[in-house]
C-alpha cells in the first residue's frame, strides 16, 4: 500500500510504547513525522487536572486524537491508531519490507506471546501514570514487577531464542524487549539474573534501526540526555 503523506507519530522520547513504534517504522524503512507529547511538563500534555492550566487547549486536542490520553498515537492512511502492538501489526499487514512477525504459525504465536507478556504483563505496572500514584515506593514497586515479569520471560526466551527472541529473525517480540530492558535499567533491576534477556538486548542495540529509534536520539530528547 502506498500513501500520499507520511505517517505522523505522536509520542514521547522515553515512552517505551512510542519507542516500539519508532523501531517498527525503522525496520520497515518508513519515513514519518513526529509530534512530541511531553508526559511530564505541566502535568503532562496528554492529560490535565487543572482547568486553568495553559495546557488545557493542547491536552483537549490530544484527548480528541486519543481518548485514552496515552502515547503513542499514529495518523496513517486516513485513520488514527493508538496502542503500539495494533500499530505494529497494521504496519506488518500493509507495508512491504522486513517482516515483523514470523511466517511460521508457531513462531508467530511465540512472538505475539512474548510481546503480550511485556506489553500487558510488565510495562503497564511500571508505566508513568501508575508509578506517579505510588509515591515514595515507586522504585521498589517498579523493580518488583519488572523482576517478576523477567523471571517469567527468561525461561521462555531460553526456549524460543536464536539470534533474536524467536529464532534468527527480528520480530515484534524484539521490538518490545529492548524498550522494556531500557526501563529495567532505569529502575536499577539486576539483569545479571537474566542472561538470555541481557544477551538479546545487547545484540539488538547494535542494529542501526534500534540505534536511530533510541530515546537519546529523538527530537524531544532533553539536551542532557542526548547521545
TrEMBL record:
Gene Ontology terms, MF aspect: glutathione transferase activity; maleylacetoacetate isomerase activity
Signal peptide: none
Keywords: Cytoplasm, Isomerase, Phenylalanine catabolism, Transferase, Tyrosine catabolism
Cofactor names: glutathione
Catalytic activity as recorded in UniProt: RX + glutathione = an S-substituted glutathione + a halide anion + H(+); 4-maleylacetoacetate = 4-fumarylacetoacetate
A single cellular component GO annotation: mitochondrion
Entry EC number(s): 2.5.1.18, 5.2.1.2
Principal cellular location given in the protein's record: cytoplasm
Domain GST N-terminal: residue ranges: 5-99
PROSITE patterns associated with the record: GST_CTER, GST_NTER
GO terms under biological process: glutathione metabolic process; L-phenylalanine catabolic process; L-tyrosine catabolic process
A Pfam family recorded for this sequence: GST_C
InterPro entries in UniProt: Glutathione-S-Trfase_C-like (IPR010987), Glutathione-S-Trfase_C_sf (IPR036282), Glutathione_S-Trfase (IPR040079), Glutathione_S-Trfase_N (IPR004045), GST_C (IPR004046), GST_Zeta (IPR005955), GST_Zeta_C (IPR034330), GST_Zeta_N (IPR034333)
Cell location: Cytoplasm
Domain GST C-terminal as annotated: residue spans: 104-223
Pathway(s) of this molecule: Amino-acid degradation; L-phenylalanine degradation; acetoacetate and fumarate from L-phenylalanine: step 5/6
Family to which this protein belongs: Belongs to the GST superfamily. Zeta family.
NCBIfam families tied to this protein: maiA
This protein's name: Maleylacetoacetate isomerase
Source organism of the structure: Chanos chanos
